[in-house]
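Dear colleague,

Thank you for sharing your sequence with our group. We've completed the structure prediction you requested, and as agreed, I am returning the results in plain text so they can be pasted directly into your records. Please verify that the sequence below matches your submission; if there's any discrepancy, let me know and we will rerun it promptly.
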Amino acid sequence: MSRRGPRRVGSDGYAGAVTMPSALNPAATLAREVARAKRERWEKEFVMQVRGSRVLPQPERQVRFHPTREWRLDFGWPELRLAVEVEGLVPGGKGRHQTIGGMTEDLVKYNEALCLGWRVLRVSQAQVRSGQALEWAERAAKTPLDIRVCQP
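Please find the predicted structure tokens below.
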């Protein structure tokens, strides 16, 4: 006779209750669209700031930096091995980057970028708005690149 584990109960307290997948949930879809619009707003703001820079050329957007993974960095200057990631943390947010799993995966990505010789500036939306992100990127661009790639 096989022993069964505890009976699974849905969030509404009923056994076998099925929750709507987030892809089909209108509220979740709207939240994703709002988050994307906010992220794009700050990314466009950063691009506009860089246009006025006397130090930085225009960055590449969504730069792939890893030879085998599909990871991308928001902005990058491959010739400088410099990147900027605009973090999407918002109060009460529930996006992928604000979960333990999402944050852990981001840490893996940032550490792999470092091991491949990339300098990644992680900035907030407020730091983009204030111009601090641009200032850091300009200072980093002026700093000589010392490539020390980690060996696997």
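Summary note from our side: Residues 126 and 132 are 9 Å apart (CA to CA).

Kind regards,
the structure core
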